[in-house]
Amino acid sequence: SHGRGGHHHHVIDDWTEKWLIQYNSALASISLMVFLGFADDVLDIPWRVKLFLPFAATLPILAAYTGSTAVLVPKAFEPLVRSLAQLVQTYVPACVQNVGLTGVVLHPGGTGAIHLLELGPIYQVFMLLVVVFCTNSINILAGLNGLEAGQTLVISGAVLLHNVLSLSEVVSDLGSQGAVSAQVTADLVAKRDAQLFSVYITLPLIAVTAALLLFNYYPSKVFVGDTYTYFAGMALAVAGILGHFSETLLVFFAPQIINFLYSTPQLFKVVPCPRHRLPVYDKRTGLLHPSRREDGGWNLNLVTLFLRLFGPATERQLCNRILAFQVLCCALGFAASRYLL
């Protein structure tokens, strides 16, 4: 209750308003992407157009984002980034306010100094590209029973584990701070709230995807279309951006990045690209074989590449191999974030 005076819970109201803005923006972006996915299923939109559909759905997230516009620089690249920043400050003075290297101490008086590269407005462009990539990447790495839902479940599990580990660190820091500045406490609370928000998005995604995978895994009784893949990609992008760990999220998407880069010549029509680049099924042996383009070359996607590298396989075996690669990349992502950053 606000009381008759209307001023008793001003701070709580400000926090609630900020949270609701982020929640509603996330809901708007995910819902709009579901609609665009349904339109794609019905209208059969070309690939080159589909790549840019998420731009419109990204606008609510960009408008609601209030987090940092800096990216964490890996320790191995700190000297290189510092040199580049000095060059920018020397030869491009107008950019100094938007691009520079700053040191942020999380634990005053200790050794917890980390380096952030401040990107300013460029970070908005980075977030836009993250959303466009995430929403399309799961849709591009597809074509096997259980593959779309399986990779979503693995990435969602990695995101949730990242949230839990980050929350445990924040709770530990808050409990051991003692007499610290209000700014440090506020920063830790903001990090806690961001991670919790990501949990609120990721948990329902895991529940829905796990239930879907029960029927979508080989032999599939339910098939997913662009509606689900766009929904899953946007939900993960929202969790990463509003949870303030979009760089870590991209590490979890390593197989999708490899698949996208490998598929680029076909996606942009440099070489012929059929509507579905499915492997060839051999009825006699029950195995899948790599498929070719109409010009005789191999189809350029991760599914075909796995068949070329490891030989023909059943659909179940091929899906399991790609999902195992997804798990490995997520594990390496955790190792990189813990020891290289």
Which helices and strands, and how do they pair?
Layout: H1 10-43, H2 47-50, H3 54-64, E1 70-72, H4 78-91, E2 100-105, E3 113-118, H5 121-140, H6 147-176, H7 182-216, H8 226-242, H9 246-252, H10 254-267, E4 280-282, E5 287-289, H11 302-310, H12 315-339
Antiparallel strand pairs: 1-3, 2-3, 4-5
Helix pairs in contact: 1-3, 1-8, 3-5, 5-8, 5-10, 6-7, 6-8, 6-12, 7-8, 8-9
Describe the structure.
- This protein is 65% helix and 6% strand.
- 32% of the residues are buried.
- The strands form two sheets. Strands 1-3-2 form a three-stranded antiparallel sheet. Strands 4-5 form a two-stranded antiparallel sheet.
- Mean pLDDT is 82; it is low at 1-11 and 95-114.
- The chain starts with 9 loop residues before the first helix and ends with a helix.
- Helix 5 (121-140) packs across helix 10 (254-267), helix 6 runs parallel beside helix 12 and helix 7 (182-216) runs antiparallel to helix 8.
- The protein is built from twelve helices and five strands.
- The protein has 341 residues and is mainly α.
- It has helices at residues 10-43, 47-50, 54-64, 78-91, 121-140, 147-176, 182-216, 226-242, 246-252, 254-267, 302-310, 315-339, and strands at residues 70-72, 100-105, 113-118, 280-282, 287-289.
Task: Give a quick set of tags describing it.
12 helices, mainly alpha, 3-stranded antiparallel beta sheet, two-stranded antiparallel ribbon, 341 residues, disordered N terminus, globular
